[in-house]
Amino acid sequence: MSARTPSLRMRLLVGFGIVLGLAAASPASPALAHDELLASDPAADSAVAELPDEVTLTFSGVLIDEEGVNAISVTDAAGTELAEGTPALDGTTATQAIDGDSQGPITVRWRVVSSDGHPVSGEFSFTAGDPAARSWYRLRRTAS
After folding, report:
1. pLDDT tens per residue across span 90-127
2. pTM of the predicted protein model
3. Which entry of 13, 39, 42, 108 is 20 to 30 Å from 77 by CA?
4. β-bridge partners, 136
5. pLDDT tens-digit readout, 12-46
6. Where do the H-state alpha helices sit in the chain?
7. What is the torsion angle, in degrees rounded to the nearest 10, for the CA atoms of residue 77, residue 81, residue 82 and residue 85?
8. Residue 47 to residue 51: CA distance in whole angstroms
9. Among 108, 136, 98, 133, CA closest to 46
10. β strands within the chain, DSSP E
11. Nearest to 126 by CA among 101, 110, 103, 107
């Protein structure tokens, strides 16, 4: 063995350690991160005067538009499904038609396939109608 062999090994080990340290410390690249919901209309936890005709979800990446892959469910407090048909996709946006005149808490549950091929899902709620009017109606109905 020569005197150069241990120092070469040491340099290789130190170099390898630096590469591992940098790899572990670097943040995940956007290509490795799944797409996510950026916005919705109506917005999560918002109150709207009446039930809208549609719910629009905007994601961070283009959605894969294949039949039966994406689904959006919209239900009222009684669990009645309000979504009509399948969601319409346009790039990063999914729009779900709604049918009905429900008031109160509305829950939106979604599952879409993001541009990286992985399904992403979630849910949020908003309130439709005037909460004060519903409270007054319930109070009046209870008193009768």
Report:
1. 999 999 999 999 999 999 999 999 888 899 999 999 99
2. 0.69
3. 39
4. none
5. 666 666 766 665 665 554 455 678 999 999 999 99
6. 4-25, 131-143
7. 160
8. 10
9. 108
10. 37-41, 47-48, 54-59, 71-75, 83-90, 93-98, 104-113, 119-128
11. 107
Cβ distance 33 to 120 under 8 Å? no
pLDDT of residue 91: 95
Beta bridge partners of 122: 110
What is the model's pLDDT at position 41? 98
Residue 82 contacts residue 125 (beta carbons within 8 Å): no
Pick the closest to residue 99 from 54, 129, 68 (CA basis).
54
pLDDT of 70 higher than 70 = yes
The CATH code belonging to domain 37-138 is: 2.60.40.1220
